[in-house]
Amino acid sequence: HPYFQYRNNVLYAEDVPLDHLAHGLGTPLYVYSRAALKAAWETYRSAIGPLPVLVCYGMKANSNLAVLKEFVRLGAGFDIVSGGELKRALAVGADPAKIVFSGVGKQVWEMRDALAAGVKCFNVESEGELRRLSDVAQEMGMRAPVSLRVNPDVDAQTHPYISTGLKENKFGIAIESALDVYLTAQALPGLEIVGVDCHIGSQLTDISPYFDALEKLLDLIGQLDQAGIRIAHLDLGGGLGIRYTDETPPSPKALLDQVFERLNARGQGHLHLILEPGRSLVGNAGVLLTTVQYLKHSDARNFAIVDAAMNDLLRPALYDAYHGVQPLRPRAGDLVEYDIVGPVCESADWLAKGRALAIQQGDVLAVESAGAYSMAMASNYNTRARAAEVMVDGSNYHVVRQRETLDDLLRGESTL
Ligand code: LLP
Fold first, then answer.
1. Whose CA is nearest to atom 16 of ligand 1?
2. From the alpha carbon of 81, which atom of ligand 1 is closest?
3. Is 56 considered catalytic here?
4. How far is the centre of ligand 1, averaged over its atoms, from the C-alpha of 302 (Å)?
5. Residue 79 in contact with residue 147, Cβ under 8 Å?
6. Distance of alpha carbon 379 from alpha carbon 107, whole angstroms
7. 35-71 confidence digits (pLDDT tens)
8. Would the CB of 202 count as within 6 Å of ligand 1?
9. Does pLDDT of 161 surpass 60?
10. What is the ipTM of this complex?
């Protein structure tokens, strides 16, 4: 990870030694690299060149305002899934004309807010939602721009919890009924059909499921065309994977080159494309710093009990996810295999298993690839305050979210 490297045996984020941040700001601490965000954006920007592609950052991956603001500066649009995410996007000055609104459960107030803001498109996931959206738009004297999120029934070959394009998933409208539902949408007075949408899963390391989905969507677009429904854009969702350990995920360039090759081959080169990448824009731009509280040895296992837990980083507990772990100041000495676990009262509270490390109590570790779905999924389980977040920028750093206080946690509660 080029923006997190050792210099003289100390791990740095860009030009900032991480132990300096850990000692000054405490742990657990999320640290992001602004240069890494820019570099990830650049992989998309350079792959796009002059092609008609809008990148809408899937902000559920990391919605810290400083991260969002950086993407606004870079010219990104946003993929939002709630009224709360809309509020965040507007708070950093995002252009509503570059916001797409996804999600299976949009409520009336969320539709109203998004229509009032003037979002580019609602990615609609059911007939009920279509009817509700038409009513809400009509009440406001507007027509809501819509795509249907089509479920193409392809196997994204990723973890079942983050695979979304199979028949049995709750997401989208089955491809077999999509034409009928488009005809319904066309007849509804408060809607204007603008696109076709899909999202087949996350952390995809193989590119072929995209093309399985694309071919099916192009067939649908052909049928729509015959029915007199013209599609302006095709949204292929997010999903490009990142390297956590030894994965070799496809690049945005590989994806885009082949997508446009196929669009052109099928006479659809005029279509505008939307992508909704989340993880691949932020995942490797962050680390989680955590301090070793205790080392504990049993017959079966060695444990390093650290001050970060599943409430800070849920991915290992929830998906068996692998995150690399590195000491900020590596020591000489014998390597011991540790399970890195947190203080929360659950056996699932682990961050990493069986890692060979030479560490002592008080050492600080960096949990890698913690820029996506990490702080964003943090909770207050065990009445633990959520971590602070820091953005490094060259040799400077900015606290971009204060550490939560215990008073924050009790606020709003009352006794009888
Ligand atoms: N668009 C839609 C409609 C989505 O549901 C998602 C992610 C994205 C875009 C962004 O996908 P990405 O490019 O990040 O793969 N918490 C899980 C990942 C859940 C993904 C949910 N949807 C994890 O930690 O691996």
1. 373
2. 3
3. no
4. 34
5. no
6. 24
7. 999 999 999 999 999 999 999 999 999 999 999 999 9
8. yes
9. no
10. 0.99
Q: How far is CA 356 from the centre of its chain?
A: 29
At 170, the pLDDT band (50, 70, 90 cuts) reads confident
Q: Which of 100, 202, 318 to mutate to test the pocket of ligand 1 (most atoms within 8 A of CB)?
A: 202
**Residue whose token pair is 């996804």:** 102
Nearest to 392 by CA among 364, 359, 366: 366
Q: What percent of the chain has pLDDT over 70?
A: 97
Contact between 371 and 409 (Cβ < 8 Å): no
Length of the chain: 416
CA of 199 from ligand 1 middle (Å) equals 9
Residue 31: per-residue pLDDT: 99
Hey, which of 55, 57, 60, 62 would you mutate to test ligand 1's pocket, going by the most ligand atoms within 8 Å of its Cβ? 60
Does ligand 1 come within 6 angstroms of the Cβ of 275? no
pLDDT in tens, 94-136: 999 999 999 999 999 999 999 999 999 999 999 999 999 999 9
Give CA–CA dist 239/103, Å, rounded: 15
Percent of the chain residues past pLDDT 90, beyond the cut: 94
Q: Can you name the residues that pair with 231 across neighbouring β-strands?
A: none
Question: How does residue 163 score in pLDDT terms, banded at 50, 70 and 90?
Answer: low
Locate 29 and state its tokens: 């601490």
- Pick the atom of ligand 1 nearest to 283's CA: 14
Quick check: 231 and 271 in contact, CB under 8 A? yes
Distance 413 CA to ligand 1 centre (A): 32
Cis peptide bond upstream of 28, omega within 30? yes
Mean of the per-residue pLDDT values of the chain:
96
Confirm if 276 and 79 have CB atoms less than 8 A apart.
Answer: yes
